[in-house]
Amino acid sequence: MSKLTASGVTKVYGGKEALSQVSLELEQGKIYGLIGRNGAGKTTLLSVLTAQNPAASGEVLLDGQKVWENPKALSQLCFSRELNQMSGNTSNALKVKEYLRIASVYLPCWDQEMADRLVKKFGLDVKKRISRLSKGMMSMVTIIVALASKAPFTFLDEPAAGLDVVSREQFYQLLLDEYAESGRTFVISTHIIEEAADIFEEVIILDQGKVLLKENTQELLERSIFVSGHEQEVDKATAGLKVHHPERLGRSKGVTVLLEPGESLPDGYDVSVQKPSLQKVFVALCGEEAGHENERD
User: Fold this and answer.
1) Distance between CA atoms of 204 and 187, rounded to whole angstroms?
2) CA distance 35 to 41
3) Whole-angstrom distance, CA of residue 178 vs CA of residue 38
4) What is the end-to-end Cα distance of the chain in Å, rounded?
5) What is the SS3 string spanning 38-82?
């Protein structure tokens, strides 16, 4: 099975590390969720993995071959970037049909029939310029490029941004249908964690340019617990366990615990134990870290 591997990847902007010694392996036939706070380096990581941006150090390999300036490897990759209405974006001057035509030239596995079908399904006006589209319509363009690319490794940056709830459900179903039919690998960067959690086979949490966690989503949730109750009882029940994101209200306290193999919460304490959502686990792991900046990555 094909694998895309990053080893010790570092990327520097203006003297600051956007990515720091990132190493991870992406396997063929999985849907990965890439989540992190604004400025964590998600978009930078996707651009380096797909050789749209060079790394300062480290390397990215597809089945043992470097992807940088390697047409054979690049033909297997697609990074469908989030579109925006910034005036400096050269894509904005293009009409939708021109944008899709350029994509078809650069993506050798392009499926024109699928692109045409999705344009019709989404009701896109292909004669409109990118700059004249709503945020939701821009997202639809990026989704069409990603799915019609037929690239074995396909990366989507905030594909659901701007979509209403009905369109988001349509997107998730289209993605699952394509995944079931083709066995392609999808990596989805998103802030809409709860809706997408069920489709992620594995989740990658990026924090301040580093991979904080990469794990099977279900296994992560199974070993995660939220313990709440009187502060003293919670402290006693979780003594010796690694707790995250303490939440206090008067004398009550709640903490998130990620149990390691062999660990369990002892009996005999007057506490409430709940299973947290993926979003709550993410907040517990990244919500209190120092040094975050409120910026887009």
Assistant:
1) 9
2) 10
3) 29
4) 31
5) CCCCHHHHHHHHCCCCCCCEEEEEECCEECCCCHHHHCCEEEECC
Structure tokens at 68: 């940088």
Rounded Cα distance between 171 and 190, Å, is 13
Would the pTM of this model clear 0.85, i.e. be above it?
yes
Letter for the amino acid at 28? Q
- pLDDT one-digit tens code per residue, 188-241: 999 899 889 999 999 999 999 999 999 999 999 999 999 999 999 999 999 999
Give the Å distances, CA to CA, from 102 to 98, 107, 108: 6, 9, 11
Tokens coding 200: 């992620």
Q: For residues 50 and 67, what is the distance between their CA atoms, to the nearest angstrom?
A: 7
Q: What percent of the chain has pLDDT over 90?
A: 87
Q: What's the half-sphere exposure (Cβ side, CA atoms, 13 Å) at 136?
A: 12
β-partners of residue 4 are 26, 62
Task: Give helix then strand counts, H and E, for the chain.
Answer: 10, 14
